[in-house]
Amino acid sequence: MSEKIPVIDFAPFREGDTVARSALAAEIYRACHEIGFMYLKHPGIDSDLIARTMMHSRAFFNLPLTEKNKLAWSDEPSNRGYVGVGRERLDESKPGDLKEAYNIGFESGSTQLKNQPSLSCNRWLEGDDRFRDTMLDFFSACNETAKVICEALAIAINLPEAFFVNNHNQQDNTLRLLHYPPIKQTPESGQLRAGEHSDYGSFTLLFQDAVGGLEVRNTRGEWIEAPFIPETVLVNTGDLMERWTNHVFCSTKHRVRIPQDQRAKQSRYAIAFFCHPNHDTEISCLKTCHSKERPSLYPPITAGDYLLSRLKATY
């Protein structure tokens, strides 16, 4: 397991009976416990929707910087909008990351006004309803898949099936479009496309292109490749899931390095869906994850407070 990220067919969990679901949950347990990453085949998201979302993402990042900056990210509590190249620093000890991003959150519908910057409003391109509609459709599809993954994670650690679903039902999630531009000049010392980091929430769904560069640190401290595998989504557990489960599930460090070949001159695109618990959920050690021999490692903290602290450190 430390040499290779497992590929798991998720269809038997989504479509199977209790026995099939329990068997799949056991596979997911091993992946989340031993490495914190897994590829899921048949995740339940339409491939045409994934392709359409990627197409709109490329078109967005090809816009002039002046247009993208009209939607600029402004603060940690909202965490929405456009983030320019070098603005984010995932490894606090290194220079800013060689990437740009665009963050989208849950949108409640007609109660929101387009382009109104607030805690509950996304920042949309004016006059481009196709972009907006595609992103909201993709957000919804990822959220539905996340619900089923929540069920699998709960079964894996002997909790009621609805436990994680109920603690993620406010959709405090973030959809992030990512673009890593071609490298046109020598990076600063230690600078990467995305610095070494772990994700902050419960788990992440990652959709990437074939350019490559994503690496995961295994239990021996070695960096192993996490390449693009067609018709899969890459899933990794994050910091809050690690805290919740008392390190039964791990939050593994990863990074996006700069390729040492012609791919460095190519754009790399990815889409991440960060699944977070409800803002006011208390993250404290789960009853099935501690014992006298395995005491709780962390004090309780609300999911919102933890996320805010990590975003402040990142920006």
TrEMBL record:
One of its GO terms (molecular function) is oxidoreductase activity. Keywords: Iron, Metal-binding, Oxidoreductase. It comes from the Bacteria. Belongs to the iron/ascorbate-dependent oxidoreductase family. Pathway: Antibiotic biosynthesis. Residues 171-277 form the Fe2OG dioxygenase domain. This is 2OG-Fe(II) oxygenase. It holds the Pfam family 2OG-FeII_Oxy.
